[in-house]
Design a protein that fits this description.
Blueprint lengths: L1 H42 L1 E2 L2 E2 H6 L1 H7 L1 E2 L2 E2 H7 L7 E3 L2 H6 L3 E4 L3 E15 L4 E5 L4 E5 L8 E2 L4 E6 L8 H24 L5 H23 L1 E2 L2 E5 L4 E6 L6 E2 L4 E6 L3 E9 L11 E6 L5 E3 L6 E5 L9 E9 L9 E14 L1 E3 L4 E3 L2 E9 L2 E12 L3 E6 L6 E5 L1 H9 L11
Antiparallel strand pairs: 1-2, 3-4, 5-26, 6-28, 7-17, 7-22, 8-16, 9-11, 9-15, 10-14, 11-13, 12-13, 14-16, 17-21, 18-19, 18-22, 20-21, 23-27, 24-25, 25-26, 26-27
Amino acid sequence: MKRTIKAIFSGVLCIAVCWSLASCKNSQNTGDAHGHSEEIHEGHSHEGHDHEGHVHSHDEAHEGHDHNGHSHESDIHAEGEGSPDEIILSEESAAAAGVKAETVLPGKFRSVLEVSGRVMPAPGNESTIVANVPGVVSLSAPLVEGSRVNEGTPMFSISSSHLQDGDPVQRARIAYETARKEFERASKLVEDNIVSRQEYEAAKGRYETARLTYEALAADKDGNGTVVKSPVNGYVESCLVKEGDYVSVGTPLASVLSGNGMYLKADVSERYLDRLPGVNAANFRLSYSDKIYSTAGLNGRLLGYGRSTDETNAYIPVTFSINASTDILAGAYARIWLLSDEREGVISLPVDAVTEEQGHYFVYIQLDPTCYRKQEVTLGATDGNRYEILTGLHGGETVVTHGAIHVKLASASNAIPAHTHNH
């Protein structure tokens, strides 16, 4: 029993000694770690600042730290898109897009008055085809506006066979035969002085008149009636009758445009009357096209301008004669720029050189073969081809004149390569 108690006591004592030794060791390790931490925080420094300051002010360290003579901020800028005012477009991409630039210098620019108007057929170039006999109309061929017709082309047939007065061709033939017989009889009797010379001349006159009438009608006769032909080469402007209509002699059937003469008629408000004496040319754009025409390019000339208005029209007409091309339609509405005297020292650019963003206008200045800068400008007058530049350019700048829209698209691209520029 005593031996058992002694063994238990010895075991407990051993456990107590081991626990005490472990506690001392842990306490020592904790103290060493604490001391090391204090050494790091209180005694250790990195290039003049403590570790706590380094951890807390990492951004400030980067702002103050210099790499090879330039700041960290410069590195960030060089790795991005460069200056926000500069646009990068490679020479190959610019050439493929048709981008062209030219040096802008002050020069001549004409005073402009912008109005509206129409292109009209010139008098004498519009022929009206009329019925030469009464009757019922039938179309010789489908007639649509703009269809081509040549001189002598059959356009209508007019049948008079069922009219009360009969067929005028038959009546003309009968009158011709009667007049011919009377003339032949008078020719024989005048030699024997049976009829007077006066009666002979009267019979001859009736014969010639009847002959001409009959031949004119008979020449245009076919199985369907009297044929009406186009008197000129041109284009059908309008067909004024339809199949089955009854017409009398002189009824308009169709109108045909011939020749290449047209009028450009501009409508000018009366408040601009004092500016009209200087007008001598015009540019214009038709409602269905983006092409700019000039009166000079169409051998045009100013015919004159109105000197009065009336209660139905408060506009003053300014009229030019032009030689029409095949892509100009008579009757088309037009935007017209009336041109007058020239002004010196004006900076101007082609219309394609200017882009618009939210009501502001910009051009693109070429800094070098691959770098461009966006420049806001103020526009003045336009003659349809060029804009007058009031502010934003001083002359001497190299400005993109063709393909500006492609430079604009490059400025909006997220794939613009890095580029920095010092000028």
